[in-house]
Design brief:
This protein has two domains: 162 residues, Hexapeptide repeat proteins (UDP N-Acetylglucosamine Acyltransferase, domain 1, 3 Solenoid); 31 residues, no CATH class. The chain is built from three helices and 23 strands. Strands 1-4-7-10-13-16-19-22-23 form a nine-stranded mixed beta sheet, covered by helices on one side. The protein is globular. This is Carbonic anhydrase family protein.
């Protein structure tokens, strides 16, 4: 399904393939020879999404942008099944494996690999040619790449990046689940107008 959001329609190169049950929504630009596979969701809720040439977005991957977090994917990137990529920059030839996540305001250098179930946390910057191992976490700028067992070290770096403020516009001490969902419901009410 290809749908406009707030009066902006996706721009899709005629050589691209969009599976019949994939969703491309809003301010999205898709380059030449891109392949968007079955169940993939490309959702521009405010900010733009740009996908370069010859990228492959596999089944059930979710790519999103927000007002203050556009998503830019350079040429020849591969996004694996069930991956979540939101409001970040992927340089050329980046591989984001199955169930991996690349989060808001992060930057992944060219020819890097984010392996199965790995996470690149908000505002984290990965140097070109880097690899985040299966299930590990990259956090910080420049990113430290750590196993999940190093939670205290991850949290020491992650906490000042302030996920609730960066993503929801709420200070950590006021970012209760109730406040977050109320704010999201109000913002997403514009979807009913599409």
């Amino acid at each position: 399904m290809i749908s406009s959001h707030q009066g902006v329609s996706p721009r899709i190169d005629p050589t691209a393939y969009i599976a019949p049950n994939a969703m491309v929504y809003g301010n999205v630009t898709i380059g030449a020879n891109v392949r968007i596979m079955f169940g993939a969701q490309i959702i521009a809720e405010g900010g733009s999404i740009t996908i370069g040439e010859e990228c492959v977005i596999m089944e059930n991957a979710v790519l999103r942008s927000l007002d203050n977090h556009p998503l830019t994917i350079a040429n020849n990137c591969l996004i694996g099944p069930h991956a979540h990529v939101v409001g970040c920059v992927l340089e050329e030839e980046v591989f984001v494996a199955t169930s991996a996540s690349v989060l808001h305001a992060s930057h992944v250098g060219a020819r890097s690999e984010i392996r199965i179930g790995a996470v690149v946390h908000i505002k984290s910057h990965i140097k070109p040619g880097s690899m985040v191992p299966i299930g590990w976490v990259a956090v910080g700028n420049p990113a430290e790449i750590l196993p999940t067992e190093e939670h205290e070290c991850i949290w020491r770096i992650q906490k000042p990046l302030n996920f609730p403020l960066s993503v929801y516009g709420l200070d950590r001490d006021e970012a209760t689940t109730k406040r977050v969902t109320q704010k999201l419901c109000a913002k997403l009410s514009s979807l009913k107008e599409d």
